[in-house]
């Protein structure tokens, strides 16, 4: 019987291993398929908010807390919103000294050819004229200029293909494993002419989930907050050497543009539009000092004047600010039933603990800070016989608090479903002397 059970366990382990290996090997556009975990987002986190889009998400820009999600983990076409990853790599190259703002770039043939397509969003680039990195960067973000984005990609990667490989690598570093990436500007593979990605079909196009776009946007704002100084520009001139192109930002939620709303001071980030993607928009707004990132994919796009993606974004942003309150969890906070840890050979047999670091959390209007509950786990590396080994210093990190909210599920971009805080000691605990330790040992014998 024991032999049978052992063989059974071995077979189950082998089958599980084959299943995982097969799933990991199924690649999409150079990225492995994301494994579905038990902590995946619900199809829709709040049925009371009916958004007329294929997918959507709203997150806190600082913590990555997800306030709303609809079909947020399905990879879909995003069109020009893919330029946010291109911009991230451009800013990274500037930070690393590979590019400089005043550096002049001569457009490669494919970038120049794409820039002449008047059916696309573009600033026309001349084959014999050089453009600064800054000018091309501004055109990419403000006017979604497709040729400008390609010229930047070529400058960073050397070739368009190399840059796509860099985009794929950076996506994996960000934890994005379900995307398809073929072009630096979001066009279909055959629309970039000689720069199309080798081995991919002509109609291959970039696909990201709403969650993926939120991850990229959060990283972009966190690592390069200066990007907002450009994304908030409503109008600018692009100098083409002999003439100028007036660029009006496609983000019509900016102040002074068609869908501006005074209650929502939107200052970014990027639109995307194509027949397959519909109308998409990654927005960001900072209201009362609390910044949100929202993504809507596949909104209606009946005409160039269709405002649907901005209407749905306004609904989503307003929902977040009106349905949640913002709670700060300060460093030094203690939680009921998670306020102490046992001590081994200490003068005190317990030590009070509290949070070493603070954070913020959005709480639904139906709950309050009293609904915050925590589980405390000690650092087992510091343990002996079930307790923290004395002596202990005041403020010493000794474990972790896992905080949840009664009556509200928590979701984060990194997959977490609770708030993780370091736990610290509230006071020092000296080691007990040898007589106290001996006396406790004797008492322990008689109390068995």
Largest beta sheet, briefly?
7 strands, mixed
Taken as a percent bin, the fraction of beta residues is: 25-35%
Compute the average pLDDT. 91
- pLDDT < 50 runs, ≥5 residues: 1-38
Note the total helix count.
10
**From the alpha-carbon coordinates, what is the Rg to the nearest angstrom?**
27 Å
Shape field: elongated
Biggest sheet: strand arrangement: 18-21-22-16-15-20-19
What does this 3D model show about the protein?
The longest helix has 24 residues, at 2-25. The chain starts with a helix and ends with a helix. The chain has helices at 2-25, 83-95, 109-115, 133-142, 146-157, 160-173, 210-223, 227-231, 308-323, 434-446; strands at residues 27-28, 31-32, 55-60, 66-70, 76-77, 104-105, 131-132, 207-208, 235-239, 244-248, 266-274, 278-287, 290-299, 324-329, 340-344, 350-355, 359-364, 372-378, 383-384, 387-389, 397-405, 419-425. It has a seven-stranded mixed β-sheet with strand order 18-21-22-16-15-20-19, with no helix packed on it. Strands 4-3-13-12-11 form a five-stranded antiparallel β-sheet, with helices on both faces. The protein has a two-stranded antiparallel ribbon with strand order 1-2. Helix 2 (83-95) packs across helix 5, helix 2 (83-95) packs parallel to helix 7 and helix 4 crosses helix 5 (146-157). It has 448 residues and is α+β, with helices and mostly antiparallel strands. The chain is elongated.
Brief descriptors of the model:
22 strands; about 450 residues; single chain; alpha+beta
């Amino acid at each position: 019987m024991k032999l049978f059970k052992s063989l059974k366990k071995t077979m189950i382990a082998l089958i599980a291993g084959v299943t995982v290996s097969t799933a990991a090997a199924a690649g999409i556009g150079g990225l492995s398929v994301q494994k579905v975990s038990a902590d995946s987002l619900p199809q829709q986190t709040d049925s009371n908010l009916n958004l007329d889009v294929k997918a959507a998400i709203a997150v806190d820009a600082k913590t990555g807390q997800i306030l709303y999600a609809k079909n947020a983990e399905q990879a879909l076409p995003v069109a020009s919103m893919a330029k946010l990853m291109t911009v991230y790599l451009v800013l990274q190259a500037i930070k690393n000294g590979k590019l400089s703002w005043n550096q002049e770039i001569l457009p490669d043939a494919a970038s120049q050819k794409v820039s002449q397509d008047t059916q696309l969003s573009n600033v026309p680039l001349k084959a014999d004229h050089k453009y600064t990195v800054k000018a091309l960067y501004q055109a990419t973000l403000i006017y979604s200029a497709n040729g400008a984005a390609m010229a930047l990609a070529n400058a960073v990667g050397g070739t368009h293909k190399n840059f796509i490989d860099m985009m794929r690598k950076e996506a994996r570093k960000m934890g994005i494993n379900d995307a398809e990436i073929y072009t630096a500007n979001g066009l279909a593979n055959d629309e970039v002419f000689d720069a199309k990605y080798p081995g991919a079909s002509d109609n291959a196009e970039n696909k990201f989930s709403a969650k993926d776009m939120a991850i990229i946007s959060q990283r972009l704002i966190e690592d390069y907050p200066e990007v907002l100084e450009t994304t908030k520009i409503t109008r600018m001139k692009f100098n083409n050497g002999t003439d100028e192109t007036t660029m009006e930002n496609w983000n019509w939620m900016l102040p002074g543009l068609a869908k501006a709303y005074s209650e929502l001071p939107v200052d970014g980030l990027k639109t995307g539009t194509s027949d397959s993607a519909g109308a998409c928009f990654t927005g960001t707004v900072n209201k009362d000092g609390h910044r949100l990132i929202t993504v809507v994919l596949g909104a209606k796009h009946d005409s160039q004047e269709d405002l649907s993606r901005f209407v749905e974004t306004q609904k989503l942003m307003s929902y977040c600010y009106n349905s949640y309150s913002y709670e700060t969890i300060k460093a030094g906070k203690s939680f009921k039933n998670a306020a102490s840890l046992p001590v081994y050979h200490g003068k005190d047999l317990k030590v009070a603990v509290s949070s070493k670091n603070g954070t913020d959390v959005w709480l639904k209007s139906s709950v309050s800070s009293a609904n915050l509950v925590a589980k405390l786990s000690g650092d087992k590396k510091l343990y002996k016989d079930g307790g923290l080994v004395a002596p202990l210093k005041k403020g010493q990190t000794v474990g972790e608090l896992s905080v949840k909210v009664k009556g509200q599920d928590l979701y984060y971009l990194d997959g977490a479903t609770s708030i993780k805080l370091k736990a610290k000691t509230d006071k020092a605990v000296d080691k007990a002397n040898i007589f106290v330790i001996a006396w406790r040992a004797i008492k322990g014998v008689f109390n068995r």
